[in-house]
Design goal:
8 strands; about 220 residues; alpha/beta; two-stranded antiparallel sheet
């Protein structure tokens, strides 16, 4: 799955669509990033809901420059995309939800790493289409919605992505989800999300309820 045209061929447009972010929704991104950074001489200090300004050199105890952060994150994706573990409850939840929903992933992962991400998820029991994106997700979600006849639910951890989707595809139901409990405690519900849910059993119940009583 490399582009939206291929995506549309893989998805039944007559069924509700669950469009998921990967990092901190399906995958324990921050937990794995912390481990990776420790192997390359850095550490993550979770003092706010962002990476920039929170990554420090272990040698100098100084904060990493923005260009260093960019390089470190790129190196993480190249080295670790294949082994980021799932958030608890994901396989069971997706198996349940697949009865009523088409399920796909829209992830801001470098295109070069898309296949590795799809393979890693497949190896952990999650075999769904994966689309790589860059920047705002609103335009991509709008393009998907334009060719999808049934309701769509968007789930992401980053408030700016909910703002983007609200602007470009306002009819889509938006769920703010932050898996890492440390990060979750640092941020309120995204302004442009309809609801905030941080665990998969609760999210599953919410998504099932949506089919009975749309919101």
């Amino acid at each position: 799955m490399t582009d939206l045209e291929s995506f549309h061929h893989a998805i039944d447009p007559s069924r509700p669509l669950l469009l998921l972010d990967a990092d901190e929704v399906l995958l324990r991104f921050v937990e794995r990033l912390e481990t990776h950074l420790s192997t390359v001489g850095y550490e993550l200090r979770l003092t706010s809901f962002q990476l920039s300004g929170n990554i420090y050199s272990r040698e100098t105890a100084t904060v990493a420059r923005p260009d260093e952060v960019k390089q470190l994150i790129a190196g993480f994706f190249d080295s670790c995309t294949h082994d980021v573990p799932l958030v608890p409850g994901v396989p069971e939840a997706l198996q349940t939800l697949a009865t009523d929903y088409e399920i796909a992933i829209l992830s801001n992962i470098p295109a070069r790493c898309r296949a590795a991400r799809a393979e890693s998820l497949r190896a952990q029991g999650v075999e769904v289409p994966v689309v790589s994106n860059a920047g705002e997700k609103g335009p991509a979600v709008a393009a998907i919605a334009a060719r999808h006849a049934a309701p769509i639910v968007f789930v992401d951890d980053l408030p700016p992505q909910h703002t983007s989707v609200a602007r470009h595809a306002p009819d889509i139901h938006r769920v703010h989800f932050v898996a890492d409990p440390r990060l979750a405690a640092m941020i309120d519900k995204a302004e442009h999300a309809h609801v905030r849910i941080d665990d998969w059993p609760s999210l599953t119940a919410h998504l099932q309820d949506l089919l009975v009583k749309p919101q």
